[in-house]
Each structure stands twice: as C-alpha cells, then as structure tokens.
C-alpha cells in the first residue's frame, strides 16, 4: 500500500483562482449534447426504463378511462331525472352503482401502477447516483496532481455531492412526472377526440400559447441555472478553505476579508438563484391562466353542442374533466423543463470532470521488484509545471543503496519537485529516473510508492484513534508492532499521558494534539511501514529541541541500510549525509559531503555560513 503522508488541505493556496474568473453572464453549454450523454449513461437500464414506461402507460390508461366511464353514470342520472319529472320512468340507481364501482376499480388500478412506477424509478435513480459517485471517486484517483493544484476542494466536492444530488432528484421525482405527464397528455387527447373534435380543437389552442410562454421563459432562465451550480462550488470552496485554515485567518485578522468574499459569492448566488427560481415559478400561474381561458371556451361550446343534442350531458362533464386534467400535465411538463435545465447544468459539470485529462497510463506489463536494493539514478531530468517555465533543468545524480542523500538549496530551487517526480506525482518532461536500473515508468505507481516511506512538514492525520492513524502505515500490523513503532519514534511516552492513550480519537481537524505530537505520529507511521527507501522533508522542524535530538537518533537508526532522501532547510541537520545535492534554479550546482562542500567555498558554503551568521547576536 501507499505509505506516504499526504498533506492536509489548508487555506491560502490560491486554489480558487482557476474557477473564479467565470463571467457571471456565461450561457449554458450544449443542452442537447449533455442530455444525450446522460441518456447514454442510462443505457444499461433501458429495459427497466421501458418497463417503467409501460407501467406508466397502464396507470394513465386506467386513470383516463375513468372520467368517460363516469360520464355514462352522469348521463344515466340526468336522463333518469328527466324521465322521473315527466313521469315516463325512474333513475336506474343499480346501473349508476355499477358504473361507480367500475370507476373506483379503475382508479385503484391506476394508483397501484403509479406506485410500481415510482418504486422502479427510485431504484434506477439510486443506482445511477451510486454509479456517478463511484465514477467520480475512481476518476479522482486517476487525476494528475496538477489538476488539484489548480482546483479548490469545494469545486470537486460540489460535483460528487450537489451535482449528483440534482440528477438524483430529477430521476427519482421529475422523470416519473415526465413519463406520466406525456402519457396523460396523449391519452387524454385521444379521449377528447372520441367525444368531440370541435371541442378538442378549442382545447388544443392552449398548446401553442403554452409552448410560446415556455420557450420565452426557458430562454431567459436556463443560463441562471448553470451559473447557480457553478457558484455553489465556489461558495463550498471558500467555506472549506476558511474553515480548514481558520486559525491562520484569525492570526492575520482576515475575518472581514473572508466575510466580504463570502458576501460577494453569496450575493451572486442569491441573484442568479432568485432569477432562476422567479422565472421558474412564473410558469405555473401563467399556465393556469391560459388553461382557465381554454376551460371557459370549451364550456361555452359544450353547452351549445348539448343544446343541439350533438353530445350528451355526461360527455360534457367528462370533457370538462379531461380539459382540467389536460392542462395539468402540460403545466407539469413546463415546470419540469426548468428542472431539466438545472439537471443538464449539473450533468454537464460532471461529464466535464470525468473527461478531464488523466495521469499517463500504467505500463502494460509492469515490473515487480521483489528484492529492492535502493539504487536511484536521475539521468538528464527536465521538468516544468508549465511547458514555458522549466523548474528542473538537466538534473543528474546517483544515490547508492543505503546512502543518505540531502537535497538543499534556496526556496524555489526544485527540492520538493524532485520528490514529486520520484513518486510519480508528476512525470518528467524528458530524461529518466531509475530504481535498481528500472525506469520508474515501467513500474506501477502503487508498487513504486510502496517502496517509499514519507514524513513531510505538512502532517496528515485522519479522524480516528491514534492506533488507527499509526497503523495506516501497515494495516496488517499488530498492536504490539504499532506500540514498538511509537516507542522508536519517541511518541509512546506522550501517548500514554493522553486520555484513553492509543484509543484516543483524533478529531477531524487534528487540533486536540500539538503539531509536534502530530509529527511524531507520522514518523511512527513511516517506521511501521518499514519501507525500502525514505523521503524526509525536514521531518523534525515542528518539535522542540530535546524531542528533535531523540527523533534524529531514531531516524538515523531507521535510515540504516535504506536509501534516504532528506529535503533540508536547516543545513545543520545534514552534516552526516553521504551525499549532498545543492540545487539552484533547477540545476545541481554542487554535490559532495558536508566537509567537501565547505572546503570548496562555493554556493553551499555561502548558504551554510549565511544561516549561522544570521543567528549570531549583534
């Protein structure tokens, strides 16, 4: 497994910049293309969705037959009442009772089918939600580190939470409404035509009016839904960064600046959200007014046709009920059209993320090194985070098995970049890195990273017990092995003084123990992993002097027989290194032992002397 310690996300790293430049008036991208992708994503559920359509059609048929059947009872009641008044007959309550029972049976069957339809769609939506989140999680593990260097955590989290939830709501709720509404519109249209084509023609005049209104509103509203989804990610990113780095923010009196930025983001999201919701809510009252106008026209024509005895009273009652039911699904479809715009915006962001550039693929037949000696060679390495700005230029060096290699140099010289290339967080632009003579590109990334143990300045501990955090270095380790590693790292003593000892839970922010104690635990984790090679980034910089001496002794013992790379900021800590590589502007300007480099009086000697002269009083 990977035994590295990953830095905990912190604020102040400028990761919002890539997305914050979005134009607030940006229009939504290709709606049809996105929905086509979403439909393709649903492809494996086509049989289930087809079954849902059939069930919805059945539910609609039972529901639609009801009014016309009930109209027969109305006609029979009307005719019986007239006969009773004229003295030529009576009301046939038996016939009317049978009709009512039939109608009740139809509505019960319709309700049962609708329940089955909702149950099936709920299952599909949950599966799609699971699949989206699984694909995003797997994609995250295949993404190059440079993506996360330029993207806020909130942006990524927004895709796996808000955007996926939006699609889930659409599939579980709106999709069922779409199916039912479409089936209802078609079924009612057939039944209306069977009663009177003239009345149907009047009722249909509301459709072009409705479509015109819908198209106008959608054209104005769709852009706001995309912007709303974007700014949810911006807002999440800002809150996550401020919460993660609230101590630093308070130390620099950044509360007001944070609040001001939050207000800008929140206000923007409020404005676009208000516009989107306002336009969306306009549809229902407007469509209701249009529907009522159609209802009035149909009632007048129906009365005229009844007087002419072209249709019966029961048919008028059934048709009026159909008109009422006809406008409702059209209104629902108009309302759902806005939901689909929001869904398309969410799906678009997910598909954009899933289409992001990934790490270079693994070798087809990766090499498995069974007995690693630890020889590392850098041959003519060139690398830059962007092609026009090289960071490492023609870097060459060799680390023999068991050597302690110190990498020193001023800030920005490329020290940490060397480690990132060694771990294949980034791939070199040109040149080769070899381990025991094998280019690291021929090894799988997971196998490569199991060879290294990492202890970094930025510690990372997760929400769990101290025992679990140390055991992260080797999940198969026993409690006794964990305790032994803690003793080697000089962490055992302070752990015993904590409440519950090794079973004490480190909170989510890991602020219930000190920074020095956190560092000790990450060192214990690396010791437990028992790696073939080590990477240490000034691992003792966060502890007091006495603890530093003890840890340094433990680390010296740990490094015996292991190739170790030490990124040094304080040159006093690398005096006993077997080889010191002095970097400046991406090049190895000097290399040798501490005494050799001091004797040469070059760049290393200049840095070393400046550090000590800086600390001399007076």
Report on the structure:
- With 618 residues, the chain is α/β, with parallel strands linked by helices.
- 63% of the residues lie in helices and 10% in strands.
- The protein has helices at 17-20, 31-41, 46-86, 93-142, 145-149, 153-195, 197-204, 206-244, 246-251, 255-307, 313-354, 415-422, 445-450, 466-471, 479-488, 492-497, 515-529, 545-559, 594-600, 603-614; strands spanning 376-383, 392-399, 404-408, 430-435, 438-439, 452-455, 464-465, 505-506, 533-537, 563-567, 579-584, 587-592.
- The longest helix is centred in the middle third of the chain and has 53 residues, at 255-307.
- The two termini are 52 Å apart.
- Mean pLDDT is 79; it is low at 1-28 and 614-618.
Quick overview of this protein structure:
The chain is α/β, with parallel strands linked by helices.
Number of helices: 20
CATH architecture tag of the largest domain: Up-down Bundle
What is the CATH topology classification name of the largest domain? Answer: ABC transporter transmembrane region fold
**What level of helicity do the residues show?**
55-70%
Under the CATH scheme, which class of the largest domain?
A: Mainly Alpha
The global form is elongated
Oligomeric composition of the shown chains = single chain
- List low-pLDDT spans: 1-28, 614-618
Beta-strand share of residues: 5-15%
Q: What's the name of the CATH homologous superfamily of the largest domain?
A: ABC transporter type 1, transmembrane domain
- Helical/strand content category: alpha/beta
Total discrete domains:
2
């Amino acid at each position: 497994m990977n035994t590295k310690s990953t830095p905990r996300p912190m604020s102040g790293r400028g990761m919002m910049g890539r997305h914050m430049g979005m134009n607030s008036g940006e229009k939504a991208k290709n709606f049809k293309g996105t929905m086509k992708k979403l439909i393709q994503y649903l492809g494996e559920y086509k049989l289930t969705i087809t079954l849902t359509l059939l069930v919805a059609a059945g539910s609609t048929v039972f529901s639609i037959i009801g009014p016309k059947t009930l109209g027969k009872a109305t006609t029979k009641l009307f005719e019986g009442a007239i006969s009773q008044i004229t003295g030529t007959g009576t009301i046939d309550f038996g016939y009317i009772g049978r009709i009512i029972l039939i109608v009740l049976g139809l509505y019960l069957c319709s309700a049962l089918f609708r329940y089955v339809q909702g149950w099936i769609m709920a299952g599909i939506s949950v599966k799609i939600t699971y699949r989206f989140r699984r694909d995003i999680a797997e994609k995250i593990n295949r993404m190059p580190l440079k993506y996360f260097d330029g993207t806020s955590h909130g942006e990524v989290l927004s895709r796996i939470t808000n955007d996926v939830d939006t699609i889930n709501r659409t599939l579980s709720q709106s999709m069922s409404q779409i199916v039912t509404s479409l089936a209802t519109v078609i079924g009612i249209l057939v039944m209306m035509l069977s009663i009177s084509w003239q009345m149907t023609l009047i009722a249909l005049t509301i459709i072009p009016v409705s479509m015109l209104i819908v198209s106008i509103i959608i054209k104005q509203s769709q852009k706001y839904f995309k912007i709303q989804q974007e700014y949810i990610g911006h807002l999440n990113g800002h809150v996550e960064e401020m919460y993660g780095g609230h101590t630093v923010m308070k130390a620099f009196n950044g509360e007001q600046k944070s609040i001001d930025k939050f207000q800008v983001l929140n206000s923007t999201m409020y404005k676009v959200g208000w516009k989107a919701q306002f336009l969306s809510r306009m549809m229902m009252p407007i469509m209701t007014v249009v529907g009522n106008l159609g209802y009035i026209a149909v009632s007048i024509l129906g009365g005229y046709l009844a007087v002419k005895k072209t249709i019966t009273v029961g048919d008028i009652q059934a048709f009026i009920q159909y008109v009422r039911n006809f406008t409702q699904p059209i209104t629902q479809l108009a309302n759902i059209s806005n939901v689909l715009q929001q869904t398309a915006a969410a799906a678009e962001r997910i598909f954009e993320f899933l289409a992001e550039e990934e790490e270079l693929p693994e070798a087809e037949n990766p090499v498995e090194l069974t007995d690693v000696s630890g020889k590392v060679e850098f041959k003519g390495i060139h690398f830059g985070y962007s092609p026009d700005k090289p960071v490492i230029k023609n870097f060459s060096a060799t680390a023999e098995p068991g050597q302690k290699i110190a990498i020193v140099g001023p800030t920005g010289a490329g020290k940490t970049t060397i480690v990132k290339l060694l771990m294949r967080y980034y791939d070199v632009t040109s040149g080769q890195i070899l381990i025991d003579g094998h280019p690291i590109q021929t090894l799988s990334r997971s196998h490569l990273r199991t060879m290294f143990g990492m202890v970094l300045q930025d510690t990372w501990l997760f929400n769990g017990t101290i025992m679990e955090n140390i055991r992260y270095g080797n999940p198969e380790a026993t409690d006794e092995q964990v305790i032994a590693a803690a003793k080697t790292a000089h962490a055992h003593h302070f752990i015993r003084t904590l409440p519950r000892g090794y079973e004490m839970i480190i909170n989510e922010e890991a602020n219930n123990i000190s920074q020095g104690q956190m560092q000790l635990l990450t060192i214990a984790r690396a010791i437990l992993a028992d790696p073939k090679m080590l990477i240490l980034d000034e691992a003792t910089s966060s502890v007091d002097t006495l603890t530093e001496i003890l840890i340094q002794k433990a680390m010296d013992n740990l490094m015996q027989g292991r190739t170790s790379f030490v990124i040094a900021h304080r040159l006093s800590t690398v005096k006993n290194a077997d080889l010191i590589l002095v970097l400046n502007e991406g090049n190895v300007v000097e290399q040798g032992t501490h005494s050799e480099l001091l004797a040469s009086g070059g760049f290393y000697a200049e840095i070393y002397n400046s550090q000590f002269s800086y600390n001399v009083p007076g």
